[in-house]
Amino acid sequence: xxxxxxxxxxxxxxxxxxxxxxxxxxxxxxAGGMEVVHSLERDSLNEKNTDIRSRPNPDGLYxxxxxxxxxxxWPRQHDGKAVKVIVxxxxxxxxxxxxxxxxxxxxxxESYERAFKTFWDKQTRDAWIAQYPYVIAExxxxxxxxxxxxxxxxxxxxxxxxxxxxxFKSLQWPIDxxxxxxxxxxxxxxx
Length: 191
Description:
Layout: E1 11-16, H1 22-31, H2 40-49, H3 66-69, E2 82-86, E3 96-102, H4 105-116, H5 122-145, E4 149-156, H6 157-162, H7 164-169, H8 177-182
Parallel strand pairs: 1-2, 1-3, 3-4
C-alpha cells in the first residue's frame, strides 16, 4: 500500500466478464456504504434488450455511460467510488484496488443465453468457454503488473452466494460488509 486511505485518491474497481456477478457485487458495495457509479443510460440497454419478466439485472447494470468511458483519463473522475470495469475496458493511470469476479464460464454462457434469448453455435460457445480462463489470467497478470493497482482480489462468484459477509470482508474495502451482504438476494443472482 502507498499510504492512500479510504476513498482518498483511490478507485475501487469491480471487474469481470459479462454475466459474472459484477452488478451483484456493485449493488452490495452500494448497500455497504460505498458510492458507486451507476449510469441510467447503460440501464436503458437492460430494459431495451430484455423482457421485464426475465430482466437479468433488475437493479441495473452499474456501469458508467458510454460517453463517460470514452473521456480521456476514464475512470479518474470517479475518485473514491466503486466502478465496474468489464474485462478489456481500459483504465487510466490512477490508484486502484480491484476485485476480479470469476465465474464458471459454462455458467456465464448459459446465463447470457437465458437472459438475452441469444444462443451461440456450438463452435463459438466451446471456443469462448475454453478461452475464458486464459483471458481472465491475462487480465489478472496485467492488473498485477500495474504499479497503480494496490491490490487485486480474485473472488469466485460462488463465494458471494455461499458466504456474502466473508466475501465482502475479504476485499478489505471501506464498507460495512454486513450491510453489503444484506443486498445479496440469491433469488436475483444472474442464473
